[in-house]
Automatic annotation (TrEMBL):
Name assigned to this protein: DUF2183 domain-containing protein
Chain segments annotated as coiled-coil in the UniProt record: none
Lineage: Bacteria, Pseudomonadati, Myxococcota, Myxococcia, Myxococcales
InterPro entries from the UniProt entry: APP1_cat (IPR019236), Mg2+_PAP (IPR052935)
GO molecular function per UniProt: phosphatidate phosphatase activity
Sequence intervals crossing the membrane: none
Pfam families registered for this protein in UniProt: APP1_cat
Amino acid sequence: MPDLYPLLFRFAVKVDAHYDVLSRRVRKGLGIAPPLRILPYRGYGTPERVVIKARVLEERKVTPQRQRHTLMSSAVASYKRYMTREIASAHVAVRWGDKRWEGTTDEEGFLELWVPPPEGVRSGWHMVELELLSPEAEGVPRVSAPVRVAGTSAELGVISDIDDTVIATGVTDPLKRAWALFLTEHRGRLPFPGVDAFYAALQAGASGSADNPIFYVSSSPWNLYEHLDEFLSIHRIPIGPLLLRDWGLSRHGFAPGGGHGHKLDKIRGVLETLSHLPFVLIGDSGQEDAEHYRTIVREYPGRIRCVYIRNVPGRSKRGEEMETIAKDIRDGGSELVVVDDTVAAARHAARAGWIRWEEVPEVEAHRREDAARSALGERG
């Protein structure tokens, strides 16, 4: 019977996609169908090969955060973020310089197009133009999608968890996590103290100008992409591709549920694409980050310089588990470092030669400022 589950989910996804098409036709005939939009995601790759990512959806205008003053208005905004209608089999054109490609969205409206960049493309961020060709292309604005190219100047890559690593979400507490995901605003939430300066130091690398790529993985849904992307920008945390999870019905099953194994697939994809780079992995002890990173160390020997795990208090047996995982990671040729704050991680990274020592006082200063701001917010 379990062998039938993948077939059943694929069938259910197709039925759901056909229903969405029929529903839109009916609503369009009644004149109540909203316009379509292209939501660009941050892509990544090398001078030889990059992935361009986006999603085609019905437009659902969310009230700007500055105009939301009540719990109800936040709840309505969250509802609009989650209750999206995706457009399957949409045809999208991609332009980058003098190159042009076309791609088609899947059943959930996702576009994932692997292409060779223009000749001579340099490391850093580049913008490509996306245009909807069908269906209902008229009136749909063209958008620009950022693409991160990691070239020879990069010294290493960084892959970081988001939940309870960059931002407090209370992932070990279902009620706190639900509150964080559905009823709080990114402008009212603070990152963990010193994260911005530590990640900026890692991005600059030992040379100070390495421009190392940073990737963020999370069990949060793609519906929160704009929410999380703006959070990073507001708090001046180095931007990078966000690798999130498709919630609801998909060809792989029904999410959320079934653990966080999807993160492994996202991390593998990054490591295989940027095969010329070693990596540093960052997570927390509240979920399964350490276990997943142990798997990655085993699967990619010699590629992982270090695993940083932020200690999440309150789990009595976690210390023993971390000791076992640390031994396994050492046996795999890497190192697991459990830290209580970003300053401890920065000092270790400086000793290892991955960041400059002069960045450590900057991390300390940011940690103090962020901690004071957080304490002020709690008192308020």
